[in-house]
Write a structure and sequence with these properties.
Layout (H helix, E strand, L loop, with lengths): L10 E4 L3 E8 L5 E7 L5 E5 L1 E5 L5 E8 L6 E7 L2 E2 L4 E2 L14 E2 L11 E2 L2 E5 L10 E3 L23 E4 L1 H5 L13 H4 L2 H10 L3 E4 L3 E3 L3 H5 L10 E7 L11 H15 L3 E6 L16 H9 L2 E2 L2 E5 L14 H16 L5 E4 L7 E2 L2 E2 L4 H8 L7 E4 L19 E3 L1 H12 L5 H8 L3 H4 L9 E3 L9 H4 L35 H20 L3 E5 L31 H16 L25 E4 L8 H4 L6 E6 L18 E6 L5 E4 L8 E7 L9 E3 L3 E4 L3 E7 L7
Parallel strand pairs: 14-15, 14-27, 15-18, 18-21, 21-24, 24-25, 25-26, 26-27
Antiparallel strand pairs: 1-2, 2-6, 3-4, 3-7, 5-6, 7-13, 8-9, 10-13, 11-12, 16-17, 19-20, 22-23, 28-29, 29-30, 30-35, 31-34, 32-33, 32-35
Helix pairs in contact: 9-10, 13-14
Length: about 700
């Protein structure tokens, strides 16, 4: 926007006399009407005034309507040329949702009325009215909410533990949450849910899409739903169907109460946001909002064939944030969620799309420049899913300095190692140490790496070690959707079993993956319910499963796994050696007499530092590393200038491995702090020069005994 519109309001703003409305459209728009709708769906249309042209060619339209109060339903009708081959799709028969609506009411009823073209003839305009079939925007007044003493926790990245969660899944089956609140904002904010996360040890909850989204017609025809919510149609509005008390603005109140509840527990709230595409889909999709307002401005259209859309996201369309109109919508939305709704950061779905300028990925695009310079957005957590499905879309390690990234290479490597794949040691060491190869060169820190082994998209942790193949039959796509296979975990039996040996191996593999995740440098991210043994019975693409298949089954929780996860996170929180602010210096050879130990040392089974041949051994299945607590720099608010020494041994082999506890410069005595094989070993001691047996497919963490002299 240009200087003449700086600070100008957009959307609907209540005043002492009524409500002011402002909408930006494509310059080709000829008339705009704001439509006020009552409870019986009767409509009053008010002509808007063409006010001024904006930077990028968009036009501002305004109207002041006396007597309109908060709770009023409204939409827009935009008149202009119907020329889909030229990228223009104006159709005033379709009432449009305000792109800047703060709340949305009702539901979409799919059919001809919701489409701007005539079924079977996509270049011909359809004049059936969508009113009565489409969701409507709601006039909202924020003035009455009291945030009390709410303050952002502002947890440093290196001290963060993220819990990715689906809001409905958190409470839909929770026995302590009242039935009327289950699956809602109020349910997710219930003390029992918040307490679980606080006691678990997470510092941030990353909520899957909260923006208003819609359920695809094709899914509803199959009796399914867009459960995950990656189908946005309102960048400012909290999803109305997650509210327990109504959809005329009550969803905003409930969302604020949720944020306040988590902040009181010291837990940040991060939103998974979908600015890369919208629910309007491709050239055959419905006319809901942006398409009928500024189709060519908001979306990437195929050059020379503007009837069709560029699809970098696999959803039919891609938002063009290189356009000033679209860019201002996204930036203003982000600022709104921070300033008005008090969220602490964002995870950007398919973030590479936001960097596309004329189709190519450009990490110095206007979007990243504006975020970096913004005094509000530059202070919150910015997490990229650093890829999309377009050409050159895989951008792990390439995002700007202020950004962190989902590290897909960490996930893949750690899974391969514990599966027993050959040739994984060199990369595993790099991932465990914070992925310096991806982030150090451009000045970022280990915390730029958001580490994960499971997420919403894929198998749950329990299913990851229980199924070699996906079982997505319930999705109605012939099991063709989702990843093709999971490769063998050598657990003996796929799926449910009562074989004690298989069950123990699966349990151990879950603990192995969690331990590697939590004790690696970087920011660990857990997927909701993994600490409880949540299963989707082999479904690795539950995007459409709004059912018990995808919800957390609290009453079937794996108590032992939960206890292990809590102890593991307590270990990380207690010791800054596992959450360093800077990368390791390392040392390729053993230090000379009198020299200090390196901050990290990679050890062979004979207790010596690993050499080139060790790293290149394709058949090696175990890795040990020493962490020098004395080499940990100060950790900020906790003020620690040092820590314990630790020895971590990861054994993915099918046989026990005997490790010689290192001597010389190393501590003389160690105690077992944590193990994935038997809790009975915790607290046992061993000494330098002794042989320590690490059971097959297990991990162990040894802590140097306090004041233990060097051997």
């Amino acid at each position: 926007m240009d200087a003449t519109t700086a600070g100008a309001f957009w959307g609907a703003r209540p005043t002492a006399l009524g409500t002011d409305f402002a909408l930006a459209t494509a310059p080709e728009a000829e008339r705009v009407e704001v439509c006020l709708v009552d409870a019986d769906r009767a409509e009053r249309r008010v002509e808007m005034t063409r006010a001024m042209a904006l930077v990028g060619g968009a036009v501002r339209w305004e109207a002041s309507v006396p007597g309109v109060r908060a709770g009023q339903l409204y939409g827009y009708r935009v008149h202009g040329p119907w020329d889909p081959d030229g990228g223009l799709r104006f159709n005033p028969a379709k009432i449009l949702q305000d792109p800047r609506a703060l709340a949305v009411s009702g539901r979409n009823e799919w059919g001809q009325e919701m489409h701007a073209y005539r079924f079977g003839d996509p270049r011909t305009i359809d004049t059936s009215d969508s009113l009565g079939h489409a969701m409507l925007s709601v006039v909202v007044d924020h003035g009455e909410y009291d945030w009390e003493d709410d303050a952002p926790p502002r947890t440093p990245y290196n001290e963060s533990v993220i819990y990715e969660a689906h809001l409905k899944a958190l409470s839909r089956l929770h026995p302590e949450v009242p039935e009327a609140l289950r699956g809602t904002y109020a349910g997710a904010a219930h003390p029992a849910v918040v307490r679980h996360l606080a006691e678990l040890g997470v510092t941030a909850i990353e909520l899957m899409p909260m923006h208003q989204f819609v359920h695809d017609a094709v899914l509803r025809e199959r009796g399914l739903a867009n459960y995950w919510g990656y189908n946005t149609i309102g960048f400012f509005a909290p999803h109305s169907f997650y509210a327990s008390s109504g959809d005329r603005g009550q969803q905003i109140f409930e969302f604020k109460e949720l944020v306040k509840a988590y902040h009181r527990a010291g837990i940040e709230v991060i939103l998974d946001v979908v600015y890369n595409h919208t629910a309007e889909g491709n050239h055959l999709g419905p006319q809901l909002s942006l398409r009928g307002i500024d189709n060519a401005g908001f979306y990437h259209l195929v050059p020379g064939n503007e009837f069709h859309y560029m699809d970098y996201t696999g959803t039919g369309n891609s938002l063009n944030v290189g356009n000033a109109h679209a860019l201002s919508l996204v930036i203003d939305s982000l600022r709104y969620w921070v300033t008005e709704m008090h969220v602490d950061g964002f995870r950007f779905d398919l973030a590479a799309t936001l960097a596309r300028e004329e189709g190519t990925v450009d990490m110095v695009s206007p979007f990243f420049e504006l975020v970096a310079a913004d005094p509000v957005l530059s202070r919150v957590k910015l997490i990229a899913e650093p890829w999309d499905v377009g050409p050159g879309g895989y951008q792990v390690g390439n995002f700007p300095q202020q950004w962190t990234e989902w590290n897909g290479r960490f996930r893949d490597c750690v899974r391969d190692f514990w599966r027993g794949e050959q040739g994984t040691l060199r990369e595993l060491a790099m991932r465990v140490a914070g992925s310096a190869d991806l982030y150090q060169e451009d000045g970022r820190k280990p915390s730029a790496s958001i580490n994960f082994v499971t997420a919403h998209d894929g198998f749950t942790l329990r299913d990851l070690v229980s199924y070699n193949h996906k079982h997505n039959e319930a999705n109605g796509e012939g099991n063709r959707d989702g990843e093709n296979h999971n490769r063998s975990w050598n657990c003996g039996v796929e799926g449910p079993t009562d074989n004690p040996a298989v069950l123990e191996l699966r349990a151990r593999q879950q603990r192995n993956l969690l331990l590697t995740l939590v004790l690696s440098q970087g920011v660990p991210m857990l997927s909701h319910g993994d600490e409880l043994g949540r299963t989707q019975h082999g479904n690795n693409n539950a995007y459409c499963q709004d059912s018990a298949l995808a919800w957390i089954d609290w009453e079937s929780a794996d108590a032992e796994l939960l206890d292990f996860t809590r102890r593991l996170l307590r270990l990380r929180h207690a010791h800054p050696v596992f959450r360093r602010r800077s990368f390791f210096d390392g040392c390729p050879v053993a230090p000379a007499e009198g020299e200090p130990l390196p901050d990290i040392a990679w050890l062979d089974a004979d207790g010596t530092m690993m050499g080139g041949e060790d790293w290149d051994n394709d058949w090696a299945r175990s890795l040990a590393f020493y962490l020098n607590g004395a080499a940990v720099p100060g950790t900020g608010r906790h003020g620690s200038a040092g820590d314990s020494d630790f020895l971590v041994i990861l054994n993915a082999a099918v046989n026990d491995v005997e490790y010689l506890i290192p001597s010389g410069h190393f501590p003389a005595k160690w105690t077992t702090a944590l193990t994935t094989c038997s809790r009975q070993l915790v607290g046992e001691t061993t000494a330098a020069g002794e042989r320590f047996v690490v059971p097959a497919r297990s991990a162990v963490v040894l802590e140097a005994v306090t004041d233990s002299p060097r051997s």
